[in-house]
Amino acid sequence: MSWFLLVASGMLEAVWAVALSASQGFKRWRPTVLFFVALPLSLAGLAYAMLDLPTGTAYAVWVGIGATLTVVWGFVTGQERATLARALLLLLLVGSVVGLKVVS
Fold first, then answer.
1. Most buried among 5, 12, 14, 34, using CB within 10 Å?
2. pLDDT score for 99
3. Is the CB of residue 41 less than 8 Å from the CB of residue 9?
4. pLDDT at residue 101 is higher than 80
5. pTM (2 decimals)?
6. What is the pLDDT of residues 38-69, one digit of tens each?
7. Where are the alpha helices (DSSP H) in 23-54?
8. How far is CA 54 from CA 36, 50, 60, 70, 99, in A?
C-alpha cells in the first residue's frame, strides 16, 4: 500500500508543479486552487509512505516520478522541446527510481 500511495503522491507532485506554473504567480484562480489542493495531498501521501519506506528512497521516488511526469507534460504540451538527450536522461531517471525500489 505504501508504494501505491507513494506513486500517487509523486503524480500529484507533477500536478501541483504544472498548476503552479499555470497559475502565473497565483494570478489565475483555477490553477491556483488546483495547486493548493494537490500540494498538501502530495506531501501527506509522501509522509504516510515514509512510515513504511526509508526516507531517502521514498523521497527519491517521489521526486523522480514528479519530475519525470512534469517534463513529459512539457513535451506533450509543447512547452519544452523533446530531444533524444532529454528522453535518454528521463529513461535514466526512471531506471534509477525503479532500481531504488528493487534494492529496497
1. 12
2. 87
3. yes
4. no
5. 0.88
6. 999 999 999 999 999 999 889 999 999 999 99
7. 29-49
8. 27, 6, 10, 24, 14
